[in-house]
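Researcher: I'm preparing a figure for a lab meeting and need a structural model of a single chain. I don't have an experimental structure, so a prediction will have to do for now. The sequence is pasted below. Please return the structure as C-alpha cells so I can convert it later.
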Amino acid sequence: MIGLSSQAYAQQDQTLETITVTASGIERQLAKLSSNLTVLGQDVLREVNHQHINQVMSRVPGAWVSRGNGQEHLTALRSPVLTGGGGCGAFFMAQDGISLRGLGFCNINQLFDTNALQAQRVEVLRGPASTLYGSNAVHGVINVITPDPLSNQAGELGLTLGPHDYQQAKFSVSHQQGEHGVMAYGNASHDGGYKDDSGFEQQKLTLIHQFQGENWSIKNVISGANLAQDTAGFIRGFEAYKEQSRKRENPNPEAYRDSQSMRAYSLIDYRPSEHEVVNITPYIRWTDMEFLQHFLPWQPVEENSQNGAGVKLSYQQVQQTFSWIAGVDIDHTQGELTEFQAEPFAPHLPAGFHYDYEVDATVIAPYAKAFWQVADRLELSAGVRYEYTDYDYQNNLSDGSACAPEVTNCRYTRPSSQQVSFNETSFEVGASYQLAPNHRVYSQYSQGYRAPQATELFRLQAGQTVANLAPETSDGIELGMRGQTSGLFYDVSLFAMEKEQVIFQDANRQNVNNGETSHRGLEFLLRYQLPKNFFVQANGTLANHTYEADLTLSRVNIKGNEIDTAPQHMGSVQLGWQSPDDKQVVLEWQHMGNYFVNPENTADYEGHNLINLRASAPVATNLTLAAQWLNITDQDYAERADFGFGQYRYFVGEPRSLFVSLRYRFD
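Model: Understood. Here is the structure written out cell by cell.
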C-alpha cells in the first residue's frame, strides 16, 4: 500500500512500482512483497500537517497511535494499545532502519524522538518481523525515512497557527554540487495546551550530507529533538469527557516531561558489481528523559538515559531469479534509571530513591533472507535470524526492600547486581503469486520476539527479587491480495497471530511470563479515482484480540475475554478533490469502535466518529495557504479511555479546532 497522497491519485499506474526496503531488506517493488506494507508519502505528510503523530497514523489499516496529553502516545499495530514497562517493546520503531532506542530501553512515547512531519515517507509493516529487525518486532515496524538531498532540491518555509496559542514553524534547505548534496530541515512548536496548566515546547533538527558516486553512496545523518512539556493527567469518572465543565480539568498541574535525544549515523552503500551490494551502517545515539509519573497517586519522578553505538552490516546478491541478503546487527547500549519520591505516601510507598541502576546491554544478531523466482508468476522467500542479548545490571542502592525494615509489604524491590542473557531464533517464509498483470496474492508466516525490557527484569515490586522471564514470542500468518486497475488500487489481508510467554504483572505485583493472547482480523485499503478530479479512499480493520491464558484478575478468570483497549473495528475514509493547479479539498471521516477498558470486560468505551476537513490552494507564486478544520461536529470523545484504581479515566479529545498554515517553496 502507498500513502494517501493527492498527487498519487493521478499516478495510479506507478503505485505497485513503489520501491521499498523496510519489508524485505533488499530494494523491492511493493507489488512483489509477500507481506503487507503501508507507505505514507511526503505528500500525505504535508496534507495532514499533523500536530500529533496519531493524526497521520489513522491512515494506516490496523494501526492506532493513541494520543495522550501533549506529545505523549501509546501504540497499537495488529494489537491492543499496549501499556506498561514492556508495552513499547512490542514494536520496532526506527529512523532509516535504526532503532530509536537501544534494546531493553524502549519508551512508550519514543516516536516523538523522530521528525515524521518532514520525513520523505513513513513505512508501516504490521505483524511479526523479527527475522529482519530482531527483538521488539513482535507486532510490527514503524520506520521513518529521511529525505535524500540529491532528490529534494526545493526549500521550504512554513508556519501553522491554531487554537490555545498553537504555533509551529518549519524550514528545509538543500544544496547540490556535483556528486554531493546537503540538506537541513527542522521545526519548532509551541502549544499553550487545551487543558489547564498544560502545553509543550518542541524542537527538531536534522542535518544530512549525501554522496552519490559510481559505486559508492554515502548518506550521513545527524538528528536531534527536544521536548519540554507540562503534562495534563487523566480526568476521572464515568463519561467525564462529556461534561463541558470538566473538559479542561487537569488533576495533575505539577506533571511534566522533559526529553532530549540525538542520533548520528552513516548509510554506506557499496556496489562492487552490477549484482552485489554491501551495506555498512555505523551509528551512535543518546537520549535523556525526566518525567513525573502523574498516573500514580504517589507521583514519583523517573529519570532515564542511554548512550549507545552499533553497526549494521549486510551483503546482497541480486539476480533475476535468485537474490539473497546476509548480515549481522551489533549494538551496545549503556542505560541508567532512577526513581525518586519527594514525600512519603504510605509506609510501603516511602520517600527517597526507589531505584538507581545501570544496565549495559549487548546484542549480536546474524541473519539471512533469500528470494527465489520459481516461475514467471511465483516468487518464494525465506529468512532466519539468531539473536544473542546480554544485560549486565548494576544496582547502585542497597539490595532488597526500599522500605524501612519493619515494613513487610514494600512496593519496591531492588534485585542484586547480576548478568542475564537470552538466545532467540526466528524465521519466516513467504510467497507472492501474480494472478494477472497488476494483481497478486501474497502470504507469509513469520515469527516475532522481544527480550524482556530492563524495567521488567530489574524494576521489581512487592518482594520479588528475581524475574525469571523468557522472551515474548509471536507466530503470525497472513493471506492478502493487492492490485490496481486504471482507477482502483486495493490491498486486502487476513491475519492470525498467536502470542506466547507474554510478560505481565500479576495480582501479587510480580512480573511473570505465562500470558497468552490471540489476534485475528481483516485489514483493507481501497483507493478509487472518481471523475472530475475527485477521489475516495478508505482503510479499515475488523479484528478480535483475546486473552487465551487461564488467568484470574479481581477473582475473575479472563480467558476468552477481549483484551482491553482493543477495538474490534476502526478506520477512516477520505473523499477529496485535487485540481491540476494544486488546489485540494479532503473531507475525512474517522471511526473508532467501542472497546473494553479492563481485562474483566465489565467497563467499556462507546467509541466515536470524527469529521475533519482539510483544504489548500496556491495564493501566489510558490505560496500555498492551507487550513484544517478538525472535529467539525464538535463531538464529545476520548482520545483514550482507561480504567485504573477502580475508576474510569480519560484523555479528553479536543473540540472543534481550526488550524491555518502558510507554506512557501523556493529553489
